[in-house]
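pasting for ref
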Amino acid sequence: MMIGIEMKKYLQIILIAFLAVALLSLVFYPTISPVLGIISLLFTLALSTYDIYTKHAGTKHARPKILKEVGVMVLTLVVIIFLGGLAAMLTNFYVSLSFGAVVGLISALGVSLVIGYVVKKEWEGDRSC
């Protein structure tokens, strides 16, 4: 199954829209919001894995390269989830009485973005050697 260039252009918009629907459903239908979030996460992982596979398909020693990149992606995701959850928990514990739970969400997103940026920079630095 090949994803055309036209479709690849809209995949990020579709994923962001799906995530926005998951966040909006949190307000209106709180019971289905975790399901939509998990579906969005799994869809993103599948597309990322497919993109890694197509990038290395047909190259010399493709399997170790694919496994290394997918492993780094999954490990990064686990670290982001753990540290983001920890930051949100600690922030909510100390600040939630004054400012509410939004501060915890913002701190979790901030930690996630910083960890993702650091891993991306280190990964690009590793490739240049």
